[in-house]
Amino acid sequence: MTQAETEALEALKQAQQQTDVEQAQNDGISRINGISPVAQARPAANALVEAAANTKRQEINSNDGLTDEEKQAAIAKVDAAEASAKADIKQAASTSDVEAQGAAGKAAIEAIKALDDQTPSTKDKAKAAIEEAARTKKNAIESDDRLTREEKAEASRLVDEKAQAARTAIEAAKKLADVQTQEAQGKAAIEGVPQTPTAKDAAKQAVQAAAALKKDQISKNNALTEEEKAEATRKVEEEVTKANQAIDAAETNDDVTAKQTAGTQAISGVSETAKS
């Protein structure tokens, strides 16, 4: 028996006159009719589910490792889980069932992952492609015997610089198409790092210049016969070949400079002495 019912009966007992009885009766009926049951279990369960869904959406939206498309797909999972949980709550009959469905819905939403554990994100795949392009380019640089150690180091540094710029651009990209564009541009920038053998080319040019000067001297040396000029020129070419081979085998800039100096000296030292 409710409090309103109890109060109505008590008022009837205390009434002395018929009018008092009628008034007490009417008052009691009004009080009973005024009782309005307040639902508590379902609103509380729905609120629990909604709070979990909002938290999960915020978590997904704040994940900069995801593209907009990946965020939208993950949020769609949250929306579906929230709707399913609320439907289960609505169907539950008892308070305990309602509470159980609310807890189950909350747990299901919290367990949602934007991507499966074994599935790399679009950005992660793009960055992996950049890393692979950088490794390939560095291997090509390292195996390029035209470059000195210093030139290899500088080229590798440029590769690292281009790779980092690409990773930064990929992280900042919002949409799938933007990520793909940054990946393509990053790979092109890495592949475009020059492998120019500056030191060895310059040394060989210096050797060629010394050879040209020596050949001109030999050609103008009237003390020599044509045969002697030809022999001296052949020796110059021999020294050029030796110098170029030594330059190619040099590993450092200092080694290249030393081989260049030795080569030009050997060329200049070719004898122009006429036979008796």
Spell out the blueprint of helices and strands.
Blueprint: H1 3-14, H2 18-33, H3 41-61, H4 68-91, H5 95-110, H6 122-142, H7 149-172, H8 176-191, H9 198-220, H10 226-249, H11 253-268
Helix pairs in contact: 1-2, 3-4, 3-5, 4-5, 6-7, 6-8, 7-8, 9-10, 9-11, 10-11
Could you list some keywords that capture this structure?
276 residues, mainly alpha, 77% helix, rod-shaped
Care to give the gist of this entry?
By secondary structure, this protein is mostly helical. It has helices at 3-14, 18-33, 41-61, 68-91, 95-110, 122-142, 149-172, 176-191, 198-220, 226-249, 253-268.
Structure description:
The chain is mostly helical and 276 residues long. It contains 11 helices and no strands. It has helices spanning 3-14, 18-33, 41-61, 68-91, 95-110, 122-142, 149-172, 176-191, 198-220, 226-249, 253-268. The radius of gyration is 45 Å and the shape is rod-shaped. The mean pLDDT is 89.
The share of residues in extended strands comes to under 5%
Can you give the helix content as a percent range? over 70%
Structural Rg = 45 Å
Q: How much is the average pLDDT?
A: 89
Q: How far do the termini sit from each other? A: 145 Å
SS-based class: mainly alpha
Q: Ranges with pLDDT <50 over ≥5 residues? A: none
Strand and helix order: HHHHHHHHHHH
Question: How many DSSP-defined strands?
Answer: 0
Could you state the oligomeric state of the chains shown? single chain
Shape: rod-shaped
Largest sheet: none
